[in-house]
Amino acid sequence: MRNFLLIWILFTGCLMPVAAQDLLPYNRAKTLIDYGNYSEAMNLLRPYMDESQYGKLASYASYHFARAAYKNGQYLLTESILKDLVNQSVWDNQDKARYLLALAYFQEGRNLDALDHISKITDPVVTQQAENASYNFLKNASVGFFTGNIRKYNENKGFMLALKEQIERQTIMSSEERAIYNELISMDFGAKNKESQINKNNEVLDVAILLPFNYAGGKGVKNLDNNNFIFELYQGLNFAEKELKKQGKRLSVQSFDTERSTTKVQNILADPFLKQADVIIGPLYPEESEVVMAFAERNQIPFINPLSNINDRFEGLNYAYLFRPSINSLADGIIDFSRKNIVGRRLAIAYSSTSRDEQLAKTLAENAQKLGFTIVRNDQVNGRSLIDFLDRIQLKNGDAAQADIIVILSDDPNVASPTFGFMESQNVKKPVIVMDSWLYFNFANFEMLEEQNFHFVSNNAINFQKPNLVEFREAFYAEYIGYPSFNAHIGYELMHWITQNINPSVGFNLRRNLDQNGFQSGIVTYGFDFKNSRFNKYVPILKLDSGLIVDQK
């Protein structure tokens, strides 16, 4: 009991040093830039741009301010901030500043100025990004522009690829153009098709994050609630990214707010970074996902939905993945556990009105019947009707109850609360299988029940026995002055899982690597099995044992 309580104490807070709190606006500003609130980010960064007060940090603040200004369409302001930064030889982010300044020049139509700054970049990762930008901004320039500047910029692969395509569009070539073209066709641009023509850097893992931060629709994130689950997921992804970079992993991550708009998604997919991405995380909702899945299939880029269990739209696709178990995986996990651990084959199912729970109840009933189970009830419930469901199967009558196993498929605390109260007051002995989300409801102390008959279906559940979990939570608190939510844990695990399965050491073929790896232990969860699967097949059924959550598989 004491061990279990200690685990939950991790969710309580304590005060942090004033110095950490002083940097909260700075850290908040960097996060805001990544999901679209540029004006507020700029306001938060301005005080930190004072070099006399903040020293080297002022250079970083100025760079992030310029990044926000660029994304806000303020290209002249971007230019004015960056002109000093690119000449600071002691600052270690010069190349990033040069790249951003080049983008601003491209936006202003000052192509030669942009190309001049790109030619001075030495970092190979930034060079690749700059060459991608060169291609995208110059692909409609005239052949004359290219031929007039080819000697100066022939090291820029984006410049040369755009020239190659422009010459190919012509029906007649001059002798000079023919000679240039003969050289171009021997160059290796790493192109697979028209949508993915820039050579990918196999020393860097490029991750594109597409999430609807405004999942109800709309622009900007100024008024997002603190418990916005998309923002929480992003926090976990972002925290893992920074941690992995500190460990020496070569990552390039860019985030985009889809605004729950298919038009916005289409615009995002035209971004140069998407053409070179090794993996795409998100979006979540069907209308957005269909657009991205089609893009991912054409370009052979793995697309991962981080939160969904529903895979019915994946039929015929080769590059679409669920990070969590599918409907069938969850159903199989429940049935397998019941067959091996519970006496009796009468099954009562209650489910909420969500798409996942409706489909899961249907699949569970169909698959269970094929294996000899009898479905005595299969009812949709809510907080008010749950007790009626339990009364209809006569659960109060102990061994005379109509069901041997009760399965309640819902993540709704309004369903969980009356269920817990009923079990506690009636001292029910029949096994009850529920989703692992019930473990995190603050009203339910399952250790207080006389009968320890609750079993929890793992849906990428957090493993509280993992030593990495404590380290993650403490480090997260130190940065955000608050412990991570469940969705932040999922985002953190997802980024680690991606870097384990796609990296320069093992290669960038996710499908091959998952098949070779088989079961993999999680960093903060119970683990994964994606062998011959595009969703997590590992669905242990958990139980509380002496204050600890244990895997019953």
Automatic annotation (TrEMBL):
Residues annotated as domain Leucine-binding protein: 246-500
UniProt xrefs under Gene3D superfamilies: 3.40.50.2300, Tetratricopeptide repeat domain
Pfam families: Peripla_BP_6 (PF13458)
Keywords: Receptor, Signal
Family stated for the protein in its record: Belongs to the leucine-binding protein family.
Protein name: Receptor family ligand binding region
Source species of the chain: Cecembia lonarensis (strain CCUG 58316 / KCTC 22772 / LW9)
